[in-house]
Each structure stands twice: as C-alpha cells, then as structure tokens.
Write a structure and sequence with these properties.
Layout lengths: L6 H18 L3 H20 L5 H17 L10 H26 L9 H9 L9 H13 L3 H12 L4 H8 L3 H22 L7
Amino acid sequence: MANPVTPMQTNEADSDHALVDRARQGDRHAFDLLVLKYQSRLALVISRLIPNSGDVLDVLQDTFVKAYRSLHTFRGDSAFYTWLYRIAVNTAKNHMAARQKEAKDVSVDDDALDTDRVSGFQDLGSPDGEASAEELQSAILSAIDALPEDLRQALTLRELEGLSYEEIAATMKCPIGTVRSRIFRARDQVIQEISSQFPGTFLS
C-alpha cells in the first residue's frame, strides 16, 4: 500500500510546480530557486555514484542544464525532485561510462609524457581546479548563517527542517505572506552570494 500524501508534501509539490511553470515561461530566477533548493541533495546522490569528487560539481551542473532544457517534458506525474533525481542518476552513469571509454581508448607511453600533460592529469579533480560538492554545500550553509535573523530562521525552518509555510507562520508568529516573502528574499540573497563565490553555478 502506498504511503498517504501529507499536507506538507502537497504544499511542497504545489510550490515546485509553480516555480516550474514560471521557469517554462522564461523566468530563470524561478529555476534558480529550484537549483538552490535541491542542489545539496542531488550532490550527495551524485557523490555516491562518482568516485572522483572533483567531477561531482560538473555532473551536478550538467543535471540542472539538462533539467532546464527538458522542463517541457515534466508532466507533474511525480514529484519534481523525483524527476530531477532520475536525471542526476542518468547523467552520473553516462559520465562514468564516458570516463571508462576514455580510459580504454587512451594508451600512453610513459616515456612520451611531457611536463604539461603530467601537470594536466594531476590537476584533474584538484581543489584548485574545481570546487567540490562539499565546498559548495559548506558555502551554502555559511551564506544562510550570514542572513538576517528573520530570513535565516524562515529559510532554515523551510529547507533544513522541512516545515510547511503554515507551520513556519505559527512558529514565527507572522502571516503566511510574510513567511513566503522572507523565504524568497533569503533564497535570493543566498543565490547572489553563491554565484559570486562559484561563478556559473546557477543558470542565470
């Protein structure tokens, strides 16, 4: 027997579908909010499939690019995160298959390696070359911590504790409209901060 859908899950789905509809109409910021909402969870999923942590951020970015380009195929039959999860898993599997093919196709004579090529291989996945998923998640948490108290509390209750807008309004003793505004502003500030630290993380 399938588990019953809770009111919180219903509100979550409605919020995601509203953002998807806006993104389909060309609102890139709406999609950025979905990226911010799910990128940490997807990075964790991808990191379990990709052995090289330096590749995780690339696969994560590819996942969201594919998702953005395929928004017209999302019918809403499943949760948006479930749809994203499938894209992430397939992207990670394709990435690994390509890596394995490259490893088989490339045969290198050790005596022929020059200094530039050696340094290039050493740079793959290095902290200086690519930000790891762990660094990205840490930066997001730091950006949240730096928010004003009212924005930080609203976003934390929503994204980290999973409370509904109604529950957050009751906890913070303010109207639901105020809660929505605070969460929107909080997400926007976090997006701006992460975009400045990791250029190209978001699509806009």
